[in-house]
């Protein structure tokens, strides 16, 4: 089997078969992460029969087993071609499950966890989400909210941890950890974080040595621990 790469699509040329064979499989869009060798290994077993009898569901299922493939659509194009549209995963974060996880798990832009590998340089630029199984969508949503919350003070979260007891912690790009704790009806997490960011430039931001940990679990203030101080700021 060989794969051609025309200007607008990729195609897999199939061996001749009697009675209206499928001669070509064409990919409607260039693939960024799916490798040619993976496609060549996945397709032959699914391409049984001729143009009319080939099972399009089997072709779709075979391709959706590939690591970087999220969703596939397949249609017949007369007289001897299949057209394939592949939606690849778009990596948004690295994933670490609380009870341990296989290496190479990522979170896509929909908050779905999938197993695939990225070059080390690309993976290093992604945030790390750490939480119980099934919480990746919530962590990804919160990550976006935290990024926007810290933007006014020029800081960026690079890691979010959600404990099995649903307690939140952030790690910022400057190495400082921010303990947010659990949601509290009388003192919501977002309110406590907004209060801290509002006073950050005149308090923590002016310190020559940044604290290792900022604790925002207090309803009316925050505490700093580690390199800078052991005291509590009101």
Task: Describe the fold and architecture.
The protein is of the alpha+beta class and 234 residues long. 20% of the residues lie in helices and 30% in strands. The strands form 2 sheets. The protein has a 10-stranded mixed β-sheet, with helices on one face. A 5-stranded mixed β-sheet has the order 1-2-3-5-4, covered by helices on one side. Strand 7 and strand 8 (113-115) form a beta hairpin. It is elongated, with a radius of gyration of 25 Å. The chain starts with a strand and ends with a strand.
Task: Identify the notable features of this structure and list them briefly.
234 residues, alpha+beta, 10-stranded mixed sheet, 5-stranded mixed sheet, 5 helices, 20% helix
Spell the H/E element sequence. Answer: EEEHHEEEEEHEHEEEHEEE
Residue share in β-strands: 25-35%
Low-confidence stretches: 1-8, 228-232
Distance between the amino and carboxyl termini: 70 Å
**Overall mean pLDDT score?**
87
Shape: elongated
Lateral arrangement of strands in the main beta sheet = 8-7-6-9-10-11-12-13-14-15
The description of the largest β-sheet is: 10 strands, mixed
Q: Any idea what the radius of gyration is?
A: 25 Å
SS class: alpha+beta
Helix content: 10-25%
Structure summary, number of beta strands? 15
Please specify the SSE layout and strand pairing.
Layout: E1 2-4, E2 10-13, E3 24-27, H1 36-42, H2 56-64, E4 69-77, E5 81-88, E6 91-97, E7 105-108, E8 113-115, H3 120-124, E9 128-131, H4 136-150, E10 157-162, E11 168-172, E12 177-181, H5 189-199, E13 213-215, E14 222-225, E15 232-233
